[in-house]
Structure formats: structure tokens, C-alpha cells
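This protein record is not my work; I was only asked to verify it. The record follows directly below this note.
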Amino acid sequence: MRSVRSRLRPAAAAAALVSALLLTLAAAPLAPAAPTAATTPTAPATAAPAPASSAGAVPAAASHVVAEIKRSSVWSSGYGADVVITNDGDTSADGWTIEFDLPAGTRVSSHWSATKTQQGQHYTFTNLSYNGDIAPGRQETFGFNATGTGLPLNCTINNQPCDGSGNPPTDPPTDPPTDPPTGDTPVAVNGQLEVCGTKLCNEHGNPVQLRGMSTHGTQWYPQCLTSGSLDALANDWRADVLRVSTYVQEEGYETDPAHFTDLANSLIQQATDRGMYVIVDWHMLSPGDPNANLGNARKFFTDIANRNKGKNNVLYEIANEPSGVSWSRIKDYAQQIIPVIRNIDSDAPVLVGTRAWSSLGVSEGADESEVVNNPVNASNIMYTFHFYADSHRDEYLETLSRAADEIPVFVTEFGTQNYAGEGSNDFGMSQRYLDLMEDKKISWTNWNFSDDSRSGAVFKPGTCDNDGPWTGTSSLKEAGVWIRDRVRTPDNFPTD
């Protein structure tokens, strides 16, 4: 938000095919000399002959590189894959190149932690500066998303056929069971979430959509976050998720880090006790470059992750609304903060803010292509998008629609009013956004769960000071009545 200011919904089982191992690619030992241009992806391979040695001499050790492609998720129009490259030889492997073909109708739509070149349906992935040297017994990784269902064929690593035959298996693995999970709360039903391709998925591999509310700044409205109001959010509203907004400036974190860390942690625990997911929002606004708060962000996320690393319901939003700063600077910040979280909590999804107040660049004349073509080098992440329906019209809606087909997107903040969260409500435009997000399984939280005087706050002024009433609609503004009805939409998980 700018300063001027239930239950999960899994996709149909047919779109929730999640596989484990795609195929295992074992390269022959590398030849002592550089490979020749004559070697092609389909040529049969034999290991380079060992050099002759005198009696009793020990042959020189060799590196032996193995690549394992794991299809981490499958959806109706494609799949995601992680590639693990292991050196199981005796000497270091200096760089790697993996090549494969994809059948017609399938293409790589995005990738990370490698450079990619393409000639028709032939793809080549090469290491980056930080993941090319692999010591014996060590691993490096990269990954990609594919649009289409065809699996890689004719795979080679360092110009050697991956398994010596040039014929890796192409049959898809067995699909997991699709029976609906059981449980009483969103977290009990769905467990640990993870990013699978362009979707957010539950522990059963089914794409889900979280719906819930964002707090206002906890420095201003802690009285709106009581046992009674959170009970109502979980049980009366049937929300899946609470976004806890810890402002950095504006009388927030930087004034008293210990207090605001304790407050955020308390709200995380209260959401946990009610079976909801919780987004830890580092609510930076001004300055718009998240790197200006890098030191504070490191400390905050270190403290929060250490306190909550045993939980399976936490997501980390590391930069609320970057502005006036390039995507490359935001990406650089993300690649410094994500490891801070991953070194403590390796499983939690991380949400990365985008340029121009998390509009994927639209508010500063760009679009989603800068993220699609230059994604953050990390897995299990999503990119955030914010909109305010009365201000952000078709250009924003169309950007969100295109982006969601290419990258994982989470709408962590939106309103039915103008960009300041005030003025009249445009429920018609808002419903167009909600219909799109339901269709593409884009999770969302609405701004905001407070009694601020602006029309975007769901409660009427005075509700929080009077401690309610919290349930029903008598204390809600027009926008509150409208959004409550949509948060509590019944589950649509198939029961047949």
C-alpha cells in the first residue's frame, strides 16, 4: 500500500498431476581432450579409452558427471523440472553444458540458474559463474518450466550422451493419487506449500488458491488484531491466510526492531493456532529501493525465520512495493535475502516484490517481460502483483493474465478503490480481477483488516477500539461486506 493512503481452493484433480523422478541422465566419463564438433546429441557414446600404463601404475582419476532431471510438478498445460548435476568422480568437473530436444508443441517458458540458448526445438543450458565448478561428491542445480507435455529427448552432458545410448526414457511417471485430503483447517488440509511450475501447490501436489486479508501497519492498528478478530477471520470469514504487514519506516520496524519482531512473531503464532497460513510482509515503501533496508531486512528475516522454522504455514514476502528502482536492483536484493531465509527455513515459499509498486513494472512504463526474461536465481519463489481496481484498469489486468502463464504470481495486496485505498468502490472491475485469479489459481490477500477511515479498510471506524463486534456484517463497510463474501467462498475440491 502506498503511503498516501476456509479453506484452500485446490484445482481440479486433472490439473494436479505431480510426478517425482522424470529421468536420470548419466554421462560417460569425460575424455581428456576437448570434445569435437562431430559429437551430436543422438550419436552413440563410449567412454574415452584409459591411457596405457606400465605395470603397477595407478590410472589417472577422472571426473564423472551425472545429471538428474526431476519433474517437480505437472499441470494441464506443462510442467516444471529441477536438474541436479552431480560429480561422482575423483576430480573436479570444470563447467557443464546440458543439451536436449523437446517434441514439437513443447517449449521452455522460463529457466533459472543457467544460461539458455535455443535452435528450434534444441535447447542448451550452460552453468553460470557460481555453479560451474563441481568438486568430487558435490552437486549443482538449475531448473526450467515447460509449456506443453513433451519430455526431453536425446540428452547430452558435456557433449557425451547422457546414458551412453542416447535414448532416455520418455514415458511419464506414474501419477500420484488424487483423492482429496482431509482436515479441519487450511493448514491441516494442505500442509506445507511449495511452488510447482507457475502455481502454488499443497503437500499433495495439487494447485491451490489462498484467499485472505492483509493487516494494516501493525504500528497503527494492533488493536484490530485481537483474539476475537482473528477468530472471526478464521471461522466466520473462513480465510486461508493472514498477511502481517511490518512497516520498515513510518514509525515502524526501524524505530524499535525488537518490539516489531515480537509483534510479528505473535501474529504468526496466532494465525498458526487457528490453522491459517501467514505471510510475513516486509512492508517497505520509501525509499523505494529495497537495498536501502538490506541490513534491517537481513536481521528481521533471520530473527523471524529462526523463531518459526519448524512451522509449515509461513510464507516470506521480502519487499512490499519497490519503486523508482530497476528490476536488476530488486533481483540483486532478492538474491541476497532469499539465502538468509533458506539457510534457516529451507521449505517456505518466498514472495518477491516487483518493480513500480509491485505492478510488474506497469506503473513505470514496463511490463512482465523483464521478470520473465530475467528471473531470480532461486526455486520455490513467487512474484507479487498489487492492484487497486478503480485506478488499475485493463492494462494491469492483461499484464497479470499474461504473467501468470509464465511465472508464479501471488497478489499479496489489492483493493476495490483507487491506488490510495480510498474513494468509491469499483466492484465490477474488482470482480473481473477475482474471476481471472480464480481461473488461473492466483492466491490473494485484500487490503486491509482494520478500521482505518479510508474506504479500503473493512471495519467501520471505532470497531477496533470497541473490540467488535467482529462476526457478521454489522461492523463492516461496503467493501468489507463485499470482500468477506468472496473470502468465504466454499471449497471447490472435487469429491468424486
Remarks:
- The first helix runs from residue 186 to 190.
- Confidence is low (pLDDT under 50) at residues 2-62, 164-182, 492-496.
- Residues 227 and 270 are 8 Å apart (CA to CA).
